[in-house]
Queue: 2 jobs
Job 1
Amino acid sequence: REGIQPERRRRQQPVIADMPASLQEPELPSNALRLALLAVENCKPQLKVKQIKTGTKVSYNPMMVHPNQQLSLSVRWILQAAHARREAVKVGKPPTMAECLATELMLAAQKKGAARLKRDETHKLAVENKGQMRRRIS
């Protein structure tokens, strides 16, 4: 990818190269690419919530999410969950980023994990505030 600096690209390549060896679960697709696509698809949000302040009152307006933004949010949430999983280890040697990412992808493919939980929380908040969906404030 052109947008990533060369030194950052070098750090990412081993993580991506190590992933297929870590992804082995009997009920999931054997192909690492299919598993990653399934995980991203399972974490895509359909709705997002925009926070609007009017004076001291805060209201949440649900909005539909554009397909491009669905993809970027899904990938971002999976990467954040993998990073948080790695940072959560306090004792001993932390697992590699490839292991954490592989674990998070497997959980997301099973519709579990922190990324899927974030999607479900966003949808829950949007459904709770669906009465404000028609109200538009610029």
Note: Strands lie at 47-54, 57-64.
Job 2
Amino acid sequence: RYHKKQLDWMDLWDLGILIANRAYQAGRWPEFYKSREIIAEALRQLKAVEPHELILRAKVLSNLGQCYLATEEFQEASKHYSEAYSLFERTVGKRSPLFGMQAWACGNLSFAQQRFADA
């Protein structure tokens, strides 16, 4: 059998999301913050190994933004959500469900910030 010597960016992304979801639900904040680091590392690796894979980059950015939204770190959430929004707009267009999902996420962020008119 073949075993990887190390996890690739997609493995890290999957692992980070799994840990984030479980830690958030259980209120285990040190694990939750570690999961953000794992997702951020997945993003760094993705940019380095597959720089032209913009749709997956947008998905990872959106997940990372969601992690910051969950802890009410709105500036960081906005940074990641905005980049994901732009990438989805450029790659799949405004009629795509992926773009719609990101527009909804950005609306949730605006709502959480009590910027209701922007939501």
Note: Residues 7 and 42 are 10 Å apart (CA to CA).
